[in-house]
Amino acid sequence: MGMYNVTHPASFLLTGIPGLERSHPWLAGPLCMMYAMALLGNTLILQTVRGEPSLHAPMYYFLSMLSFSDVAMSMATLPTVLRTFCLDARNIAFDACLFQMFCIHSFSMMESGILLAMSFDRYVAICNPLRYATMLTNEVIAGMGFAVTARSFITLFPLPFLIKRLPICRSNVLSHSYCLHPDMMKLACADITINSIYGLFVLVSTFGMDLLFIFLSYMLILRSVLAIASREERLKALNTCVSHILAVLAFYVPMIGVSTVHRFGKDAPRYLHVLMSNIYLFVPPVLNPLIYSAKTKEIRRAIKRMFQRIKK
């Protein structure tokens, strides 16, 4: 008990993948590769959009926001994940853990909001193309970006304080190689009803509502596309949405999988919970730049031109 003060431990112990501790040095290589792909891919997207005047359009501004949130998410988890797997350095200070928790949840919520904004962009482009330029001005796009950021900060600002008020004395061992709110609150030896209710409120009112509005926007898009007489025009319109749909699936499918495992898979092995959580955090930042580079010819052309200028 010497390491504890009145309300919380001085530090937490992070956990890699239970049962595979001896394989952690071998897993460090693939993890480093995934981080490198996420950081390089998203940085390349950001640099391409910044340096290519033809990409200074609403769709690509939103893509830049998505890439920024993916870079930020990767940077938020990278220090503790690599320390845990590469160096077996599992200690993290209590306040540092709170800060990481806030960053991870904030950037995750930010990504959800950006995906919603991108669905609105596709809705206007397909359902009301004549007003696209007047509706999605630079000022409107900047306002939407600010609103997404402000929502994340304001909604999640109470979380560190809700954790800090709890007396954590059961254990100081977390279930992951990074800090999450549900993981931390389960260590409290006090009533966590407020934390649970607020966490559920945040989940439903932000991620849940975002997913609902994305779904509704695509219902309207589909109705508008089906009204187009030409089959070629219908396919062309839908093709502009493919990258965004894949990005939505890459973000929400792992999230729903994590929630399902936590809610209904209480008897599942611990390593399954950890693997699902890692997939949720690592897959979107790695896949998003690959998806948009592969499915968006304007991005491919701009990247090619950028490398040609570098060679010269």
TrEMBL record:
Source organism of this protein record: Oryctolagus cuniculus (Rabbit)
InterPro entries reported in the protein's UniProt record: GPCR_Rhodpsn, GPCR_Rhodpsn_7TM, Olfact_rcpt, OR51/52/56-like
GO cellular component terms given for this protein: plasma membrane
UniProt domain G-protein coupled receptors family 1 profile: residue ranges: 41-292
Higher taxonomy: Eukaryota, Metazoa, Chordata, Craniata, Vertebrata
SUPFAM superfamilies xrefs: Family A G protein-coupled receptor-like
PANTHER family: OLFACTORY RECEPTOR 51I2, OLFACTORY RECEPTOR 56B1-RELATED
Bilayer-spanning residue ranges: 26-47, 59-82, 94-120, 140-163, 211-229, 241-259, 271-291
Family designation: Belongs to the G-protein coupled receptor 1 family.
Name under which the protein is recorded: Olfactory receptor
CDD domains (UniProt xref): 7tmA_OR51-like
Membrane topology, as annotated: Multi-pass membrane protein
Gene Ontology BP term (one): cellular response to lipid
Alphabetized Pfam families for the sequence: 7tm_4 (PF13853)
Major location (coarse): membrane
Molecular function terms, GO-annotated: G protein-coupled receptor activity; olfactory receptor activity
Localization (cell): Cell membrane; Membrane
Keywords: Cell membrane, G-protein coupled receptor, Membrane, Olfaction, Receptor, Sensory transduction, Transducer, Transmembrane, Transmembrane helix
